[in-house]
Amino acid sequence: MNRNEAAARAKGEARERSNQVFFGCTIDDHRFERHFTGTDALKNFEQPLNERIRACLRLEYLFDRFELHLADESAEGSLCAILILIEATDVLGRIDVKRELIKELERQQAKLLHVAHTPQVNAEILNQVLDQQAQLLDQLLRMSTQPGTHLKKHELLNAIRQRASIPGALCAFDLAALHHWLAQPYSERREDFVEWLEPLATIRRANELVIDLIRKSVAPEPRTAEDGFFQLNLDLGTPYQLVRVLLDDNSNVYPEISASKHRVIVRFMRLDRRTGHPYQVNHDVAFELALCQL
User: Fold this and answer.
1) Are residues 60 and 205 in the same domain?
2) Tens of pLDDT along 82-115?
3) Which residues contact 218 (CB under 8 A, 6 or more apart)?
């Protein structure tokens, strides 16, 4: 077997493993069951490779934090939830998220239909995903306003947004209306949160599906960073969307990831807790790498 044949065979085997991992997962409440290779306890670091995925990851991060603080019945928990909701609204205002999600869902849908008759594809799982995509696309296309518009019309939320950037400006003498609202029973505060979040439900579900499909598009592979440094040249013909670096929880390092259409560079760093100064380690680091594209 010559070098070209070996490379083609290796690429085909990698694609087959990727399809088996992706289509072998389970779906639960619009989210795939998260699992990694090798070990169940891994630190996960991600680097988006375009603006669309960058916005999707930021929204996912904010919605997850919102749910965490929403479960906190204290006034402080509700204040944190409001501030995160305002952040999410700002993200929605910087990029036409609805349009970008529609484009990404349509693109992913076309990709999945293209591999629908591949032997290793789990047809039942694939059909569930395609049904979700179709439903979400229909809901997004029927949305008459840009997501988050209703929150920008809320006077209390606007007042909080204006004051939040000023240090200490959310105290009682600056914003009495906020502290009056925070003093209401948790049941009433939660009702308001549900009302504020409901118009964003479709955006959130679509965002979760898009990101989870990309994450599951390839299986992470073991790699080694010699003296804490790793570099990989990329295939210019492959539209990569997301770089994922996974570390065992026992590792006392973190990756600094830089990526372009030409290469991925990962430097493993350690943080001096006393000074906060990061420095690159000088020993080999074992990790897992996934270059995601769908």
Assistant:
1) yes
2) 999 999 998 988 888 999 999 999 999 998 988 8
3) 14, 18, 21, 22, 290, 291, 292, 293
Whole-number Å distance between alpha carbons of 132 and 43: 29
Longest Cα pair distance anywhere in the chain, in angstroms? 78
Is residue 154 domain-shared with residue 238, that is, in the same domain?
no
Q: What is the DSSP string of 226-271?
A: BTTEEEEE--TTS---EEEEEEETT---EEEEEE-SSEEEEEEEEE
| pTM attached to this predicted model | 0.81
Is residue 150 one of the residues assigned to a domain?
Answer: yes
Residues 169, 231, single domain; the answer is no
Contacts of 221 (CB under 8 A, 6+ apart): 14, 288, 289, 290
Please check whether residues 189 and 294 belong to one and the same domain: no
Whole-number Å distance between alpha carbons of 239 and 261:
8
Of residues 110, 187, 197, 111, the one with CA closest to residue 150: 197
Same domain? 72 vs 207: yes
Both ends of the chain: CA-CA distance in Å? 30
Alpha carbon distance 216, 241 (integer Å): 12
Same domain, yes or no, for 175 and 236? no
